[in-house]
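Hi R.,

Here's the chain you asked about this morning:
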Amino acid sequence: MPGIAQMVASLGGMAQKQQLVALGARDLDLTHAVKRGEVQRARQGWYTTLPENDPRVRAVRVGGRLTGISAVIALGGWVFGRHSLHVSVHDNAARLRTPWNRHIRIKGRRIDGLVLHWDDAAVASRGDATMVDLRDALLRVVLDEELETAVAALDWALHTGRIDQIDFADIIHALPVRLRWIRDWVDERSQALTESLARVRLRQSGHDVVSQVALGDLQQIDLVIDDLVGFEVDGEEHHRDTFESDRSKDLDIAASHLHNIRPSARQVFFEWPRVLLAVETAIADRRRAQP
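And the predicted structure, written out as tokens:
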């Protein structure tokens, strides 16, 4: 029989006692595995090989599963900033615990750093042991988060193939009518968090923005703004091996009669007013120069 840790790992790093018993584990085996540190109890009847601070462990410890922006983060989605832990629990859940200690019960429905979502059986029937279905998580993101955060999450899910257009349509249909307009802000052509954030912020400022515009046969411009500015965003770490190709691309953008602006990711994240001022100044100058 494989060891307890191996069993738990084969089940995705999180397993209920009855699953392990079905594989041949005995109570004594489980007790010894915990004492030896091979697995830990995330919650009564739940065993895990995941790190103590893993959000999936904390969600199970509460008595639920990751949802909303927390699920997107756990899957490697495009998310900017820090967010509370969002946990989906069944609408009749009881004996909930804090995310940090399985022995301490949650009193009431509010605790700092934790957002509980009381979901019905339909949500509970989808997903896996630690996370709701991504479509349910994305729906939650649109309901809970700011526009740029929700759009970036949906951009990521579509661009990476985590969801398809049918899934996207289902998410939009499940939204209240007052929120369905978000479909017109999502763009699966977006290739990075910085592009999604910049596109939404520019549109909110009244600009027309097009993603991934062809530049010759082999290149694309990240964003073209008002048909006047070519907007490229450098990654969080600008590597030496892309320097020459990026400078070459800048020349091609300028040769296409566009004003080229290339902020860093950090500038998009933390100095957006300065970036927007540069864009709008360039647009104003170009328009004044036009006959």
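The beta strands are 14-16, 40-43, 46-48, 65-66, 85-90, 114-119, 209-215, 219-225, 229-231, 259-261.

Let me know if you need anything else.
M.
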